[in-house]
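Reopening this one. Same input as before:
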Amino acid sequence: DIIYFYGEDTNLTAVYRNRSPNLPAGYGFDYVNADALIHVLGVDSKGRITTPGGVTYRLLGLNRTSQSMSLPVLRAIYKLVLEGATVAGAKPVDDPSLADDRAEFQALAHELFGDGTGVHRVGKGAVYAGETVAEALTAMRVPPDFTYTPNPGGEANLQFVHRRLSGGDIYFIDNRSDRPASTEAAFRVTGRTAQLWFPDSGKTAPASYSIADGRTTVPLQLEPWGTVFVVFRESARRSSLAVAQNTTATLATIHGPWTLAFEPGRGAPPSIRIDHLIDWSTSSDAGVKYFSGMGTYTQTFEASPGWFRKGTHLWIDLGDVKNLAVVTVNGKNLGEAWHAPYRVDATAALKPGANRIEIEVVNAWVNRLIGDQQPGATKYAYTDIAAYRADSPLQVSGLIGPVTVVREGLPVAQTAKEGNQVSR
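Same output, byte for byte:
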């Protein structure tokens, strides 16, 4: 929707290092500098600002710092407006270049912005003089491209990018939060069904949707820092669709004792036996406390025959992991768990009766670097700079858990035995 000129005074990161521009939520925007504004941007027959790469914009927004503007930039804006572009922002009042023609600068600024207020029609385009980008979009009757209902308490922070195709629209939605987001998201799309494309697995799924007033509302469930593509391609035959949602049920919690073996040559004992899962950094054993590398947890647990039902999936959910895990059940590698929720599909590996689980967990190397700084410590890691001191805070490490078995599928009656906790 918006291409935003941030001025010529300084570079972009200096202007917006610690903040974003005061632009309305729900509208996509890109920055533009003076060089691109002069040499790259054009205008199509619909009055949209264009780039050679095919990106189009409804509105050119001017930062207040652009009130000091060189004549070449002002000429470029004037040309864009003549060809049909729409501009919003404060009137340029000063030209920092001593080589520019002051009379031409004042004439162009007056023709485009008048006295600095109001809407000015110039050529095929328009200038919303003295108005913010939000005010201009409201006057242009351009609704937000993406909105959502926040979590209770308002903690959700969803960001988006929108790509328009000849045969549909793609939105990339990003949950920028440590908390899961359950929300109703509304998109400026109509007449098409919604699909969910999951970037971490490559899987796709139909989504529930409701079309009304030129917008399509889709319920979204995102894990902490989770992402999803919402794709609109197929023509909708109805104004709404409710997709049946699978339910999940925790069948068992896998308790200790666990055998925990450590990667050799890193200062930790070969293995230890723990009754319950712990954060390595809280251990009284310095070799465990400061360990960085791979720790392997092994355990045997019993699976009830009642867990196995046609049309359902069984997952091993690791709870919290710091930082990555690889899960093996009965000798079958189930893959990596690298983000929340830390879980793997164990349907093809689990069997009624005894099951052996192996969980390889890798943490960051921070704790080892801190351990190497302790008085009299043997150094196991080497860096070019001393990034950590002996009193630097340790990072949570290892398998924190709880480790559970979860069934996913259509709602089913639960038996008393399925709720039992199991241990070795």
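So the earlier flakiness isn't reproducible anymore. For the record, The chain has a mean pLDDT of 92.
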